[in-house]
Amino acid sequence: MQFQPILEEIVETVRPLLGAQGHVANYIPALARVPAAQFGSALRTCDGQEAQAGDSGTRFSIQSISKLFALTLGMGALGDALWDRIGREPSGNPFNSLVQLEAEQGTPRNPFINAGAIAVTDRLVSQGDAKAALLELLSSLCNEPVHFDEEVAASEAATGFRNMALGNFMKSFGKIDNDVAAVLDAYFHHCAVGMSCLQLARATGYLCRDGRHPFSGEQLLTERQTRRINSLMLTCGTYDAAGEFAFRIGLPCKSGVGGGIVAVVPDRLSLCVWSPALDATGNSLLGMHALELFTTRTGLSVF
Amino acid sequence: MQFQPILEEIVETVRPLLGAQGHVANYIPALARVPAAQFGSALRTCDGQEAQAGDSGTRFSIQSISKLFALTLGMGALGDALWDRIGREPSGNPFNSLVQLEAEQGTPRNPFINAGAIAVTDRLVSQGDAKAALLELLSSLCNEPVHFDEEVAASEAATGFRNMALGNFMKSFGKIDNDVAAVLDAYFHHCAVGMSCLQLARATGYLCRDGRHPFSGEQLLTERQTRRINSLMLTCGTYDAAGEFAFRIGLPCKSGVGGGIVAVVPDRLSLCVWSPALDATGNSLLGMHALELFTTRTGLSVF
Amino acid sequence: MQFQPILEEIVETVRPLLGAQGHVANYIPALARVPAAQFGSALRTCDGQEAQAGDSGTRFSIQSISKLFALTLGMGALGDALWDRIGREPSGNPFNSLVQLEAEQGTPRNPFINAGAIAVTDRLVSQGDAKAALLELLSSLCNEPVHFDEEVAASEAATGFRNMALGNFMKSFGKIDNDVAAVLDAYFHHCAVGMSCLQLARATGYLCRDGRHPFSGEQLLTERQTRRINSLMLTCGTYDAAGEFAFRIGLPCKSGVGGGIVAVVPDRLSLCVWSPALDATGNSLLGMHALELFTTRTGLSVF
Amino acid sequence: MQFQPILEEIVETVRPLLGAQGHVANYIPALARVPAAQFGSALRTCDGQEAQAGDSGTRFSIQSISKLFALTLGMGALGDALWDRIGREPSGNPFNSLVQLEAEQGTPRNPFINAGAIAVTDRLVSQGDAKAALLELLSSLCNEPVHFDEEVAASEAATGFRNMALGNFMKSFGKIDNDVAAVLDAYFHHCAVGMSCLQLARATGYLCRDGRHPFSGEQLLTERQTRRINSLMLTCGTYDAAGEFAFRIGLPCKSGVGGGIVAVVPDRLSLCVWSPALDATGNSLLGMHALELFTTRTGLSVF
C-alpha cells in the first residue's frame, strides 16, 4: 500500500476544519499559547517505509504519550514485578480521580492514568536516573537526540497540585518508595518531552514489531510484553474515551493533551497524528478524526 | 487452517484440570448444582466450516452472553437512539455497582454491565414482546429452536434484588420507561436461555461477517454497528477483567456466569467455549485458559 | 414562662414572609398542591401547658417525621437488637444516597435517612402489622384518632422508585427479612400519616419526659433510649442540614418534606412548627426560621 | 456542686482498666512510645473553681484538639468569610477521606476533619505567623507558656503524606492560597502542641462563657460564634463517632489521637480528660468512659 498519498489526502480533508472546534490545553501557559490551527501526521511501516504530511516535523509536547515509554522502560527493567503495585484494567473514571485510588488502597487501575504513570516513574527512579533513561530510550528509538522542554516541565511542576496529591496519597498507602518530589520531577519532565510526528512514528516502531527496536532490531520487550502494551493502549490509552476509540478507530492508541496521538497496526506500521485542539475528553479532536479517516481509507483496523 | 484437531488438542490439554480450580456460580440453586467438571468448545468459520470438541452439545445457561443478543436487537430496532440512555465506555467497577450509576444520574456506563442490559431490555419491552423477540433471534441465528430454562428464570427473579435495585434506581432518574417488574421479567428470562457451545458458535456468526446472518446472509446489523459491538466486547465484555482478556486472548469476548464465553475473530470465525467453574472475576477459568491456548495455537489475535 | 404570647408573636413575625421563598415538595401531586402560604405552631410542656398559634390545627403530611415514631416502636420492641443492622452516625450524604449503603454493605448510617427507616420498618413488619402499630401509637400519644392519607400513600408507592431501589439493595445484602413490597407499603403509609401541629406537639411529649407517655405516664422507652433518640435527632434529624440546625436552633429536631418540624427541649416541652415551603435541603424554610425565633426568644437551647 | 471528689471517684473507677484495652496511636514514634497506662482529668467552672485528678498535670500531644483553637483564631480573624471554603456539616466519612473532597470540589465538610483544619490553617497563614498565633492564644488562655513538641512536629511532617495529599488536592481546586508546604508546617506544629489536662480545661474556658476569655473576660468570639463552635463539636468533634458521643456523653467534645478529649458544659464548666489508648474510631477509650461517668454522675448533659 502507498501511504504517502493517503496521508496527504487526509491533510487536505482536515485542513478546512483547522481551528474550528475544540480547545488547546490551557492549564499551563506553555501549552495554552500553541496555535490551534496545526496538523501533522507521519507513519513508518515494519519494512521501513515512511510517509508524512502537514506539520509532521513540528515538535510538540508529548505529554501523556510519555506514559507509553515510561511503561516500556518499567516493563523492561522490572518484568512482571512492575505489576505488583499497578493494575491493568480500564478505570472508568476521569484520568486523575482520587476516588478509585482510595477505594483500591493506593493501587492505580492502570499505568496510563496519572496515578499509574507516577507509580511507574517511582519504580524507574529506584532504578537510577529516570529522566536520562527516558531521553536515552527515545533518542535511540527515533535515531536522533530528543530533549525536554524545560519551560513546560517547570510549568507542570508549578501547577501540578493534583499530581502532587496523587503521589502523596499513594505514598500514604506505602505504594511509592522514593521521595514524592523527586518522582514528580521525573514525571513532569517525561511529560515535557518535545517530539514531532515523524519522531513519534519512528519511536513507536517496536510496538508493531513484537518488541524489536525499529532500527537495530534489538529485542526491547518480549512479544508477550508488547502485546500487553498494545492491549493496554486499546483498553486504557485515551483517557475516558477508550470505548469510543476502539469503535471509531479500532487500533491501540495513546494520546496526550499536547494534541498528539500515536497508534499501532500490529505487524504493519506505527503512526502519529497531531493537532493541538482537544475535545471534552482531552483527546485531539482532529487527530481522532484523522485516525478514523486513515482506518476507513486503509481498512487497517483490528476489528 | 484445520480447526477440528486444534479444538481436540485443547480438550486434551484442559481435561486434567477439570474441577481443580474455581467455583461454579452459586447464587441460584439451578446454577449451583451444575457439575463443575465439564468443558466444551465449538466454532464456525465465515465459510461455514464447523468444529467442536468435548461437551460441545451440552446446553448451559448463557446468562450475560444474552446481553450481546439483547444489544443486537436494540441496535437493530432503535439505531443510534439506543445510546441516548446507555454509555459505551468501560466501567472500572464491579458489574453491578450502583455508585457509578448514581454519579452519572442513572445512565449506565455500557450495555454489558447489568444496569446497561436492563436499560437495553427496557427499550426492547417498549418495542413489543422482548422475551419472544430474543428467542426468535436466537432460534434463527442457530437454525434450531432455542428455549428459556424457566426454573433458572424463576430463581433469578426470586433472588435478583440487586437487579431490582438497579432497575428501580434508573427508573427514579426517569431512565426506564416501562414497569420495572416487566423489564426484569424479560431480563431474567434472557439470562435463562439454555444453549450449547455449537449453538452459540453459530449464533454469533454475524459478528465475524460484518453483521450478516450466518445462514441467510441477511444484514442484521450494519458493518459499523457490528464493529461497535465487537469493540464493546473487547473493552467491556468480561466484567472487570477486560484488560486481562484483551492481553491474554486479544479477541472480542463476552462471558456469562454460567461458564460460557463467546469470542469473535473478525472476518474469520466465531467461537464458544464453556466450563462452569469461575474465577474471582466471574469468568470461566478453563474457558479463559482454552481461549488463550486457541489464540496462541492459531495466531488469531487482533494484536 | 408564658408560651402562648411567644407563639403568637412568632406568627406575626413570620406572616409577611409566607409564600415568598422556597418551594413546596412537588414529587407527588398530593403534596404539590398544598398551598405554600400556611404556617402553624404548637407546643406542650412537661406539666401539661399547651400553646398554639396560626394554622396549628391543620393536618399535613408528616412524611419523615414518621421515622421518629417508627424508631420508637422499633426500640421499644427490639431493644438494642435494633442496632444490629442500622448505624447511629451522621451520613454526610443526601438522605437517599446509595453510595454509602454500597460502601457499608447494606447497613444504613442511621434510622433517619430513608434506607435506615426502611430497615426499621422491616423489623416492625416482622413484629406484626406495622401500619396498625404506628397508628395505634400515634393515636395514643395525641389522645385522638390518627389516620393515613391513602391518596398520599398511593402516590408515594407509585413514584417511590428510589426507595424501592434502597429496599432491594439492602435485601441483596441480606439486611431485609421481609418482602420488599410489603415493607415499602408500610413505609409509604407511615410517611402518609396526616397530623396537625398540636397533635405532633402532644405526640412527641415522651421525648421531653425521659420516655414517659405524655398523658398516661407509662414508660414507653427507657430514659437511656429517649436520650439516644434525642441525640440522633440533633445529629441526624434534618437531612443534610443537621450542623446548621444544631447551630441555629440548638435543639433535637426532626423534619419532613411536608413542611413539619418537631423539636424537643428536654425536661421542658415538645414543639411542632409547620409551613409547606422548603429550602434546598428539604427542610421547612419558615419552620426553621420560627424555631430560631423561638430559641432566641426563650433561651431554650441546649448550647 | 463539689467537683473534686467526683473527679477522684472517676480516677478510682478507671484505674483498674488502665492499659487493658485499646491501642496508643502508632503512626509516629513520638506518640507510639507514650505509656498507655495513664489517665488524667481536670475541669474549671465559669466561676473559677478548679478540680483535677490523676495525671492531670502531665503534658501530652493535643493533636486534633488544636483544630478547635485554630478554628477559634480563624473565626476571630475572618468572621463569616471563613466559611467561604469550609462546610459545617458532619462528614460521615473517615476523617481523612479524599472521596468527599473530590465530590465537593475541594471544599471540606467541616473544620474538624483534617482537610477542613488544613483549609483553616491556610487562612491563618494568610494572616501572618500561624504558628506563633496559636501559641500566643493558648498561652494566654491557660495563663502560662505553651510550646510545640518539635520532635512530634518533625515526625508528623515526615509521615504526613495523606495530609500533603489533602493539601495539594484542595490547592488543585484553587481552595488553598498559600504554599502547601508552609500551610502543613503550621498545621503539623499545631497538632504537636503539648498541654496538660489542667491547661486544656482552662484554655477551653471561653467555650462555656459565651466567648469570653476565662481569665481576662475579654470577648474572644461573639456569643453566636461560640455557639457555632459548640454545635460543631457536638456534631463533628469526635471523628466518625459523633453520634455515639452525643448519645453517651451528650456534651460538645473535641478529641485528639494523643488521647485527650475536651468537653464543654455551656454556662457551667469546661473539662479535659486524657488517656492514651484509643478505640477503633481514634478516640480515647478511657477518656470516653470517664466522660460518660462524669455526665451520669453530675447529670450535666445537654439532652
Please tag this protein with its features.
Beta-lactamase, 13 helices, three-stranded antiparallel β-sheet, 303 residues, globular, homotetramer, 45% helix
| Strand segment count of chain A | 10
Mean pLDDT of chain A: 95
Helix fraction of chain A by DSSP (H/I, runs of at least 4): 40-55%
Largest interface: A-B, 31 and 31 residues
Shape of chain A: globular
Radius of gyration of chain A: 18 Å
Q: What is the CATH superfamily classification of the largest domain in chain A?
A: DD-peptidase/beta-lactamase superfamily
**Poorly predicted sequence stretches spanning 5 or more consecutive residues of chain A:** none
Tell me the span between the first and last alpha carbons of chain A.
Answer: 19 Å
- Which oligomeric state applies? homotetramer
The succession of helices and strands of chain A, N to C, reads HEHEEEHHHHEHHHEHHHEEEEH
Strand order of the largest sheet of chain A: 3-2-9-8-7
Residue share in β-strands of chain A: 5-15%
| Structural classification of chain A | alpha+beta
* Structure annotation, total helices of chain A: 13
- From the 3D structure, determine the CATH topology of the largest domain in chain A: Beta-lactamase
- How many domains, in number, for the residues of chain A? 2
For the biggest sheet of chain A, the summary is:
5 strands, antiparallel
